[in-house]
Structure formats: C-alpha cells, structure tokens
Design brief:
The complex is a heterodimer. Chain A is built from 9 helices and 10 strands. Chain A is of the alpha/beta class. Chain A has a domain at 8-84 and 155-234: Rossmann fold (3-Layer(aba) Sandwich). In chain A, the strands form 2 sheets. Chain A has a 6-stranded mixed beta sheet, with helices on both faces. Chain A has a 4-stranded antiparallel beta sheet with strand order 2-1-4-5, with helices on one face. Chain A is globular, with a radius of gyration of 17 Å. Chain A starts with 7 loop residues before the first strand and ends with a helix. By secondary structure, chain B is mostly helical. Chain B has a single domain (11-285), classed as ABC transporter involved in vitamin B12 uptake, BtuC. Chain B has helices at residues 9-40, 47-65, 69-90, 100-122, 148-170, 172-182, 184-189, 194-216, 226-241, 246-266, 274-285; strands spanning 3-4, 7-8, 138-140, 145-147. Chain B has a two-stranded antiparallel ribbon. A two-stranded antiparallel ribbon of chain B has the order 3-4. Classes of the chains: A alpha/beta, B mainly alpha.
Chain lengths: 236, 295
C-alpha cells in the first residue's frame, strides 16, 4: 500500500507553560486533505498541542514539519505564511474591529483562498452583520467569523480548537456542514474537540491524548471496536 | 468695554486662546503617548525629551544648514521618528517580556540623558526660533487680535490629531494596530509581523512628539527643559482621558488646555494646578479615565 507523505508531522513534541511541563513527547501525523481529531479529557494537552504547533507557545522541543519543512525555528508570524490557519478556542474576535475588518485582518499567505463573496455564500449571517462590532455577534456567529477569516488567506490547513464549545445544537450542526464543505474543497483539518458525537461525524482519524502524550491513534472505521477504550478514557 | 463675567472680553478671549494653543500641544503629545502605551504597553517617559529634540532638530537645521520652518515640518518628524525606531530596536524591544517598570525606568533615564546632553551644549536659557514670514503678524478678528502663527498651530494640530485618529480607525494599517493592541500574539499567529508593527508605532509616536516640538519652537523658546515642563501635564491628560484611548487623549488635551486658560482668567493662582485637581476628581469618579473602557 502506497503511503502518502504527511502534510503535518509532529515528533517528540514537549512544551512548557513557565515551569509547568504540559506536553511530554507528542507524536502525530496529518495527511493532505485529512480531518484528524484530538480527543481527550480536559487538561491533557490538546489545546497546548495546537498552540505549540502554531508557535504560540515558544518553550517547546521536538520537531514539527509542514510540507517536509521544519517549523520549530520560525518566528511566530512565519508559521501562518507556510499555510497554517489557527482558530483559537476563545475565538479571538477583535472588539475594536468591525465584522468586515475582522474578516480581512489575517493577511493572504497563498493564492487559492476564497473570495469575500464565496465566504458570504458560506456564511450568510456574516454578510448581514458586516458593519457590526466583532464582539456584538452571537457566540455561533463569532465562531463562524473565526473560521471564515482563515478561508480568505489561502491556508491549506486549519487548526481548530473546540469550534462547537458552548454553542446550540443547530449551530453545531451548521459548523459540521461548513467543515465537511471545507474538507470537500481539499482543506486539511486538525481538530480539537470535546464533543465526541460531533467529531465522529466529520473526522477521518482520531488521536487519543492522555497526560500530555498521544496514547492511541485509529481511523474512523475502527471506532466501534475502540468504544470500550474511549468509554474508559473519555466517559462517552 | 464688553465684559464677560466681570472680565474684559479681550482678556477672556486672550487667555482662552493661550489655553487652546497649550491644549493643541497637550493633544498632540498625549496622542503619541496613548498610541505608544496602547500598542507597546510602555509608558514613554522620553516623550517630553523627544518633543524637545524636535524643537532642537528644527533649530539646528536652521542654524547649521539654513533649512527653514516649512521643510523642517516634514524633516523633523522623520528624523525624530527614525531615532525612535533605532531606540525601539536597540533597547525597548528587549524590555517587552519584563516587568513594565523596566520600560518606565529606561525611558525616564533616556529622557534625563537627552536633556542632560542638550543642557551641556546649549545651557538652560531658551533660544528663539523665528516665526516663518508667511505666518508672522496677526489678524484683527474684530473682537480680538489673533497672531497668525497661533491660529496656524491650532488648525494644524487639529488636522494632525484628526488625521492620526482617522488613520487608526479607518485604514488597514490602523486595523492591524487596533487588533494587535487587543491580542498581539494572535495577530502575529495570523502572519502579521507584529514586532515590526511595534517598531513603527514607537517611530510614529516619537515622530508626533518631534512634530509638536518644531511647531512649538516659534511659540515657546527652544530649550533643553521645554519637554520636562510639559510632560507632567501631558501625563495628567492621558490619565484623565483614559490610558490608551486615542480619542480620549485628543479631546482631553484640548479641554484641559482650555480649562487652564479659563482658570488664568478667574483664579490665576490655581492655573498651574487645575489640571491635577481635575485629574484627581476624574480618578475619584471614573478611575479608568473619561474615555477609558474598564470604568
């Protein structure tokens, strides 16, 4: 069986918050076009993994390669320019910027991003509220905006941190549709998600994290066989 | 003679004009301070020295190279801004991850060094800087006599303040500044070169101080201490307006200038303290300042 080279590859990733050692050698791969979900209880290092890959946590060791090139030594603002888009857990919508300004804030890093028109087709709510202050949007709309603003930039990979957290079921469903649409367009997605039912509908593969390490990895096809383990570790 | 509240109207309007002139400089200086504080989280104690530097660069351009007021109006902000860029790259950029006290100490020390150097070479007495011929003389407005240069200062400072405010509120560069003020690391994670943005911000803030300095040269005299006389009041303006609020800094600058002028008319003894009395009152009622967000 011919193996695809991973688009994103993480080996032996350690990370620290000050003195606190948060990641203890994370290994993971994401193939081009794949949607991979990190599962795990609160505090096992899922968010830290995403932030360390983006370079938002600077105290880190190990290797992170993207398209075969090392990311570790890059200054923070060069990670995005390699083609990685970040949607943070707290969404990071700017209060002093309008919806429109929030949308066009991240610089275009590669050709092939969506036009504003395409983005508004995908997120009609944002078009109606384009002149509102960013943080006046509802939680669901802010999440849509946090995803939407990365789509203009031409990034090929999205790192999404708990996009469904605290949102109503109908909004969660809408975000699921959007992620499937992005996947159909070839976007690679690394997702951190507590909502297991949401994750199992969109992910191709899962990694299970415990105590700052990846302890299991399996494709969606094996999910039924893995349920006892997931039940043990996640309580689902 | 026409009287206002028992004061001759000429004296009243005259002091109001002096207040407006002072307010113009307060506004321009506190604007730069507010921009720098918002982005860099550094309280730029060197701001008064940079204003003094602006006046001296203008004076030296004229004295040594014969470059007059109008070209100096462009050259001085560029030179002082460039010096600011160098200072940020060499020193201030190394202080961001430390306690804010280090930034304060560094810029305070820098102000002392700059003032000391100019005092060593030029003494403490002021040097006159001639009003540009185009703006010499005055205009009789009927109710009062307005020196043309002072009218120019008021108009020019309004244009500078409004222009800066619009650039921050309405342009793409301004949206980077506003976003980076809220969450610098996320903006940098989007691919924006935030360290460069910080350098430019300090350069722009210093340049604004330099511009105020060259504009002040014909009004006040060019002296090594002109900045330290002014900067304490300007800090009060920033506190009253609300730390980091751009609009607050501008509006409060003019208001406090006028308040000072009015106090000179009605109770001259208090004119040098009124700004601080207002500051104390505002802090009692709204600790985040008039335009501050966390009140």
């Amino acid at each position: 069986m011919a193996e695809l080279a991973p688009l994103l590859s993480v080996r032996g990733l350690n990370a620290w918050y000050g003195e606190s050692h948060a990641l203890h050698g994370v290994d993971l791969d994401v193939l081009p076009g794949e949607t991979v979900t990190l599962l795990g209880r609160n505090g096992v290092g899922k968010t830290t993994t995403l932030r360390a890959i983006m370079g938002l946590i600077r105290k880190r060791t190990g290797t992170i390669t993207y398209e075969g090139r090392e990311l570790m030594r890059l200054p923070l603002h060069h990670t995005a320019r390699r083609g990685l888009g970040f949607v943070p857990e707290e969404r990071g919508i700017f209060a002093t910027l309008s919806v429109d300004e929030n949308l066009v804030l991240p610089p275009v890093v590669a050709p092939g991003g969506m036009s504003i028109e395409e983005i508004f087709t995908l997120f009609p709510n944002l078009k109606e509220r384009r002149n509102s202050q960013g943080t006046k949007l509802s939680g669901g709309e802010q999440q849509m905006l946090a995803i939407a603003r990365m789509l203009r930039t031409g990034v090929r990979t999205l790192l999404l941190d708990e996009p469904t957290e605290g949102l109503a079921p109908v909004i969660v469903q809408r975000i699921g549709e959007v992620l499937r649409e992005l996947k159909a367009r070839g976007m690679t997605i690394l997702l951190v998600e507590q909502n297991f039912r949401f994750a199992r509908r969109i992910a191709d593969r899962f990694y299970l994290m415990e105590h700052g390490k990846v302890t299991a990895g399996f494709p969606v096809a094996e999910i039924e066989a893995r349920m006892p383990l997931l039940h043990d570790v996640l309580g689902v | 003679m026409t009287m206002v509240f028992g004061i001759p109207i000429q004296a009243f309007l005259g002091q109001l004009l002096v207040g407006l002139i002072n307010g113009s400089f307060y506004a321009m200086l506190s604007l730069g301070l507010a921009i720098i504080f918002g982005m860099l989280r550094i309280i730029n104690f060197a701001h008064g020295a940079q204003y003094m530097l602006g006046a001296f660069v203008g004076y030296l351009l004229l004295a040594t190279a014969g470059i007059g007021y109008w070209p100096a109006l462009i050259l001085v902000p560029l030179i002082v801004g460039l010096i600011g860029v160098v200072i940020e790259r060499l020193a201030i950029s190394r202080l961001y991850n430390l306690d804010p006290l280090y930034g304060l100490l560094f810029t305070f020390g820098l102000a002392l060094v700059l003032e000391g150097v100019f005092r060593y070479y030029y003494g403490v007495s002021g040097r006159p800087y001639a009003t540009p011929p185009l703006l010499s003389g005055g205009t009789n407005l009927g109710f009062m006599f307005l020196p043309n240069y002072r009218g120019w200062v008021v108009v020019a400072s309004l244009v500078v303040c409004l222009g800066t405010w619009l650039a921050i509120e309405k342009t793409k560069f301004g949206s980077y500044l506003r976003a980076a003020t809220e969450n610098p690391s996320l903006v940098q994670a989007f691919g924006v070169n935030v360290p460069l943005l910080l350098t430019l911000t300090y350069g722009i803030g210093s340049g604004l101080a330099g511009l105020a300095g060259i504009m002040a040269a014909p009004v006040y005299q060019v002296s090594p201490l002109m900045g330290s006389d002014l900067i304490i009041i300007v800090f009060a303006v920033v506190v009253v307006g609300g730390m980091g609020s751009i609009l607050g800094a501008i509006v409060t600058g003019y208001i406090l200038g006028l308040a000072e002028g009015l106090t000179k008319v009605f109770y001259p003894e208090a004119s040098s303290t009124v700004v601080f009395v207002i500051m104390a009152l505002v802090l009692l009622v709204r600790p985040a300042g008039l335009f501050g967000k966390d009140a």
